[in-house]
Amino acid sequence: MRVLGIESSCDETAAAVVTGEGLVLSDVVHSQVSLHAEHGGVVPELASRDHLRNAAPVVKAALAGAGLTVADLDAVAVTHRPGLVGALLVGVQVAKGLAWGAGKPLYGVDHLMGHLLSVFVVRGDPSTAPAPPAFPFVALLVSGGHTAIYRVDAPTADAITELGATRDDAAGEAFDKVGKLLGLGYPGGPRIDRLALTGDPAAIPFSPPMARRDSLEFSFSGLKTQVAQWVAREGVPEGQRLADVCASFQATVTGSLARKLVRAAETQGVPRVVIGGGVAANRELRERVTRLAASRGLEAFIPAVANCTDNAAMIAYVGALHAAAGPGDGWDLVATSATVLPRATRKGRGAR
Ligand code: KG4
Ligand code: ZN
Q1: What is the pLDDT of the chain when averaged over all its residues?
Q2: Number of helices followed by number of strands (H, E) in the chain
Q3: Contact 343, 162 (CB under 8 A)
Q4: Which of 86, 109, 111, 213 is deepest in the core (most CB within 10 A)?
Q5: DSSP 3-state assignment of 24?
Q6: In angstroms, rounded to a whole number, what is the distance separating the alpha carbons of residues 9 and 27?
């Protein structure tokens, strides 16, 4: 099976062709980072217009990269939720046009399902690819808009259970807001990751959020305030001091994420952990999850970095799963800001 995936939920216009087994035949990502950088974050209207400019060339490049035409495809998959509705709409309309014109089935894909299952997407030689996890597994989804831990019993939304989530900011949002406080521009995540390499993670004792042993919930806005208060007191750091603040902040966030993921797996009696989403590209998070899981006798499955940040290969893969399971969606498929995944945790409410 060959499925074209299209992704336009936020600030990447992406298209990819993937086989039913998850092998990537082509993968094209056009990033809008430079467009939004001067505004310090994603401007939805600018995002939509840029998707409109780039969707057709990106899709053409993905088809050319796979050496295919639309006629060779078995299905067209597109992110239709959750995300910026105006941005999603562009991808959805392009996908509908392509699928309708070529007489191919259309599948709407939930972006978070893509992140959760991105560990199954194979790049390069499949004979040397690491084995994917068996079901069930416990997954940490950490992106710019979402942070949650799920038990995944099968690759369908009705077999996924939320075990805990953030009460306020997502982990990526915290990285980006702290990046802004430190004058690093947008997006802060990759820049903090780079600076943290040369910093001392013990330099500033930020206290870990929601540290109660049995809690699987996260909170990052208090930690962001701790950094803001530090900056108000000490001034915007430079040089080694900047690296130290980045390392201390990153260690606090990734420590909290890794500990809770492993705790969730142990509580569930599930010996496998998986990570996904843009923050799963973070070097320290990848290392901590690998190390902590091994020390507890759990297997850790870490997707390739290119599978973590927004891409269309993960969308095409989930589309291929949908295609194997049943007929396509109707031409009335809509773009919506809500995920299909169940929410168990309510933002801002309940015992901590
Ligand atoms: O999954 P993603 O690409 O888009 C959403 O679905 O939100 O995640 C984007 C987020 C941004 O907040 C970005 O700062 C963060 O992922 N991110 C990172 C790293 N790379 C991207 N955060 C920490 N370390 C990184 N290396
Ligand atoms: Zn994403």
Answers
A1: 96
A2: 11, 10
A3: yes
A4: 109
A5: strand
A6: 16
Q: What backbone phi and psi angles, to 5 degrees, belong to 68?
A: -125, 165
**CA of residue 22 to ligand 2 center, whole Å:** 18
pLDDT for 66 beyond 90: yes
- Which protein residue has the closest C-alpha to ligand 1 atom 13? 189
Confidence band for 349, pLDDT divided at 50, 70 and 90: low
Q: Which residues pair with 57 in a beta bridge?
A: none
In this structure, which residue's CA is closest to atom 20 in ligand 1?
190
Ligand 1: distance of its center to the CA of 181 in Å?
A: 17
Gap between the Cα atoms of 114 and 12, Å rounded: 14
Q: Which two tokens stand for residue 100?
A: 């309708």
The closest alpha carbon to 13, from 124, 89, 64, 74, belongs to 89
- 75-81 vs 106-110, strand pairing mode: parallel
Q: Rounded to an integer, what distance in angstroms lies between the CA atom of residue 298 and that of residue 301?
A: 10
Q: How far apart are CA 20 and CA 308, in angstroms?
A: 19
Question: Which ligand 1 atom is nearest residue 173's CA?
Answer: 12
Q: Give the burial class of 215: count Cβ atoms within 10 A of its Cβ; 0-12 exposed, 13-18 middle, 19 or more buried.
A: middle
Sign of the dihedral through C-alpha 266, 154, 23, 280: negative
The predicted model gives 210-226 an average pLDDT of: 90
Of 279, 316, 340, nearest to 156 by C-alpha is 340
Kindly give, in sequence order, each residue whose CB lies less than 8 Å from that of residue 57, ignoring residues fewer than 6 positions away.
30
Q: How many angstroms separate the alpha carbon of residue 253 from the centre of ligand 1?
A: 13
- In this prediction the pTM is 0.97
Amino acid letter, 279: V
Expressed in angstroms, the distance from the first to the final Cα of the chain is 46
Kindly give, in sequence order, each residue whose CB lies less than 8 Å from that of residue 194, ignoring residues fewer than 6 positions away: none
* Ligand 1 pocket, CB under 6 A: 10, 143-145, 172, 175-176, 187-190, 193, 277-279, 281-282, 309-310
Please list the alpha-helical segments (H only) found in 154-215.
Answer: 171-181, 188-196
Residue 8 burial (10 A CB sphere; 0-12, 13-18, 19+) = buried
